[in-house]
Design goal:
50 residues; mainly beta; four-stranded antiparallel β-sheet; elongated
Length: 50
């Protein structure tokens, strides 16, 4: 009941991985989120949805 499921996918820029995205579902809570991490800049995960 407290679990989640999701999909992680990446972008490729000039042959290198540049960004990672996570689409996460929390079905029992009726919630989802999309977050992004930029590996080149070293930024932490950025929330793209509220």
């Amino acid at each position: 009941m407290n679990g989640s499921a999701g999909l992680v996918f990446n972008g490729i820029e000039n042959g290198d991985l540049s960004d990672s995205y996570l689409f996460q579902l929390k079905p029992y809570a009726g919630r989802y989120r999309v977050i992004r991490k930029n590996e080149h800049s070293g930024d932490e995960w950025t929330h793209l949805t509220e």
